């Protein structure tokens, strides 16, 4: 009995919510629905990493609002922006796996864009509307909707353009090249 409880405690300590596929799936579906990706393709799935990080919590969204307004970020904001940028890059591999799973479940469609060489995403299932009605996606949907209203053309922007709009010409954008 003691060994089991120690193992359970160890598992609980090792669990990271941001790596939970259910958590990631809910966030991605709310982003795609808020950006109306059931009507048009979301260009370049790699942008989902950055958007995912920005809507993850209120603190990140608040930082986004300060960055997008063009105010000079303080040292803590700059550090947090770098963290968001790096985390968004790390999220891409997991997001890609979740997208392939959702495609197999026929919840969305993935299409390689021959012009850019990127993967575009289209929602194709009405089950998401049922989730919205149950308010499972409500908070994330509202945050993603706020991003959509702040950045025009978010669904079709290039990744580099989105990064420069959010981070400006800071150290973060220098790392991209």
Order of helices and strands: HHHHHEEHHHH
Number of helices: 9
For the largest sheet, list the strands in their spatial order.
1-2
End-to-end C-alpha gap: 54 Å
In terms of DSSP E residues, the strand content is: 5-15%
> Helix proportion of residues, in percent?
55-70%
Number of DSSP strand runs: 2
Count of folded domains: 1
Over all CA atoms, what is the radius of gyration?
A: 17 Å
Apparent shape: globular
Supply the helix-strand structural class. mainly alpha
- Uncertain runs: 10-15
Q: Note the main sheet.
A: 2 strands, antiparallel
Mean pLDDT: 82
What attributes characterize this protein structure?
177 residues, mainly alpha, two-stranded antiparallel sheet, 6% strand
Model description:
This protein has 9 helices and 2 strands, in the order αααααββαααα. With 177 residues, the chain is mainly α. The protein has one domain. A two-stranded antiparallel sheet has the order 1-2.
